[in-house]
C-alpha cells in the first residue's frame, strides 16, 4: 500500500471513529443464562442475548425494545448455514454494538427517546421470534425456539424494572419489524395495564406478490419457515383459522387483528423486497435486473414501470391497516430498507422527509399524541430527500 493510500486509509478510520464517538453509543452485551422460559435458546443451543442502555432522569421508567433483523432460515440446510454465525449463535455475536438513530442517547439526534431504557434484542432464531419446536435433531443440534427467546428476554427486562414502565415501545427492523407486528399485542399483554404501549415496525411489511417470472417465491419461502420452525402456534389464531399459516406470516393478513397502536415505517420501493421478493435470483437467470437492483437510478423505463406496479401492490396490501388515530404511517418513495436505526435516515439535516417531517418527528408526535401522522409519499423519483441504497 502506497504512503498516499495508507494516509487516506488512516483518515477514513479516524473519521469513522470520530463519527461513532459523536453519533453513537457503544453498548455491551447481556446473555440470558437462566431464562424463565425453559429451552429459550438460539439455533445452536446458546443463550439469547440483548444490549441494554439504561434510561436516565425523566426517562427512567420508559422502555424502547428493538428486535434485530436479519432474514430467515427456511429449512434444515439454510438453518445449519446460519447456526454458527451471529444470526444463529450468541457465541458468534459482537460483544458491543453501536446504538444510533432511535436508539441514540443524545437529545439532538433522538429528542423523544434519548433518555429511555433502550434495548436491542439480538436475533438468533431465524423465524422472526415465532419458532417453538421441542425436539432437537442430534445430527444438526438445531433448536427452533424463537418465541421462547422473545418471552425469556422480555421476562428478564420486566424483572429489571420494565414491570414499572410508564411508556413502552416494541420496535424492530426487517425480520425484527415483522416480529414487532406479530408480537405487538403479546408485548402489551405482558406489561401492566397502566403502561402506555405502542409498536413500531420498520421495513417489516413484507407483501405477498408474484416475482417477475410469475412465481409466488416468497409465499413458498414463508411456508417453509412456518413448517420448519413450528410457527403456526404463535401466529394469530383469528388468521390461521381462516387461511394457511404461512399466509399469516404476511402483515397484510394480520395487521387488522392488531389491537395495540402501531406505526408502520416502510419504503414503498423496499430495496430488500425488490431484490428478494419481486426479483429474486431464480426469477432473473440472465441477470437482466442486476444493475437496476443495485441502484434504482440504473433502471430502464420498463423496469421502472414494474417497480411502480410493485408500489401499487404494496399500497394495496396496506388497505387493511385502517386509519384510526392510534395508527401511524410513514411510507416514503425511497429505495431503502430499515430507516430508524441509522442516524442519517432517522434524524439529520438531510434525513428523508414526507410533508417536511422526518421519521423521528412523525413517530414521536404519534407516540405522545401530539398529532396523527399517516402519510404516503408520491411515486419515485419525486422525493429529493431520499437516501437510496446502492449495493
Automatic annotation (TrEMBL):
Gene Ontology BP term (one): cell wall organization
Places the protein is found: Secreted, Cell wall
Span of the signal peptide: 1-24
Entry-linked InterPro entries: PAE/NOTUM
Single annotated GO MF: pectin acetylesterase activity
Keywords, alphabetical: Cell wall, Cell wall biogenesis/degradation, Hydrolase, Secreted, Signal
Bilayer-spanning residue ranges: none
Entry's EC annotation: 3.1.1.-
Function: Hydrolyzes acetyl esters in homogalacturonan regions of pectin. In type I primary cell wall, galacturonic acid residues of pectin can be acetylated at the O-2 and O-3 positions. Decreasing the degree of acetylation of pectin gels in vitro alters their physical properties.
Protein family (similarity comment): Belongs to the pectinacetylesterase family.
Record protein name field: Pectin acetylesterase
Native source organism of the sequence: Cucurbita maxima (Pumpkin)
Gene name, Swiss-Prot/TrEMBL: LOC111480460
